[in-house]
Amino acid sequence: MAMKTCLLSLALCLVAAQAAAQQIAMREYAPLEQVCGEAYESDELLPMGDVGTEFGYVLYEAVVTLPEGGAELELENVRDYAAVYLDAAFQGTLTDGSKRLALHGPAGEHTLRLYVENIGRITYGPEILDNSKGLFGRASLGGDEIAAWRIVPLEVRECDPAALTFEPLDAQCMPGFRRGSFDGASSDDRYLDVTGWGMGEVWINGRYLGAFWDEEKQQSILIPGGTLRERDNVIVVFDIKNHDPRATMRLSPQPVFR
User: Fold this and answer.
1) Domains and CATH numbers, the chain
2) What H or E segment, with its residue span, contains residue 221?
3) Is the peptide bond before 232 cis (omega within 30 degrees of 0)?
4) Model-level pTM?
């Protein structure tokens, strides 16, 4: 009986160790400056097409003055998704169906950063002729129009993650690239569980795996069999919304749905 109890305890310990090994921590960070395209200066918001980008990500940046108690940011057009930061503080997200957001922070001057992603193109219906992406039209804070924008295409999907320069990940995690490593080869398909992350892209061992979004039903990305090696698999994650430096990803033998 004692032997069975001992074996059962050992088995449980092994299962627990294997489960823990499936957790992938991010240890390093590469800032977005390494994938910034040509910056455009404009007194008004410009759609993605006007800055030479049809798909992917664009950063809209302006200096604003926040009054005591905060103020409401309002955009006329959001195509299709924007993560909003005041300096390094994440404030929330905007979409074309939700174009107002209360901003909070100390009174005074701040840098407003809007990281915008084009989710897809309209291919039917009356809006097919008005298919601009990005931000355009009026932008205001507390009713006052925001001007002097700096608009920067982000060449995320075109980048080579192996060519990025990484530094240790610290407590302040702005949108950028995060890198981690883990062991474990598999000849079978596996899935990367992205639960808890926001919107972004993933590479493993230099191979682009795909994009994720926390509003989609499926919260995992396929890792084709043979992608993983026995030791030192390298994962690189880009995310415009998740600002938690402690965030991890997990490996799963099955797809993950929310």
Assistant:
1) 25-32+159-252 (2.60.120.260), 44-147 (2.60.120.260)
2) strand 220-223
3) no
4) 0.88
DSSP state of 230: S
**3-state SS, residue 144:** strand
Element (H, E) at 12: helix 2-21
Residues paired with 94 in a beta bridge? 82
pLDDT at 110 over 90: yes
Pairing of strands 233-239, 176-182: antiparallel
pLDDT digits (tens, 9 = 90+) for 225-251: 999 999 999 999 999 999 999 999 999
**Both tokens assigned to 70:** 């905060």
Q: Report the distance separating Cα 183 and Cα 232, nearest Å.
A: 5
| Percentage, residues of the chain above pLDDT 90 | 83
Q: Please tell me the distance from the alpha carbon of residue 137 to that of residue 135, in angstroms, as a whole number.
A: 7
Query: Is residue 81 a contact partner of residue 119, using CB atoms and an 8 Å limit?
Result: yes
- Alpha carbons 108 and 133: distance in angstroms, whole number: 31
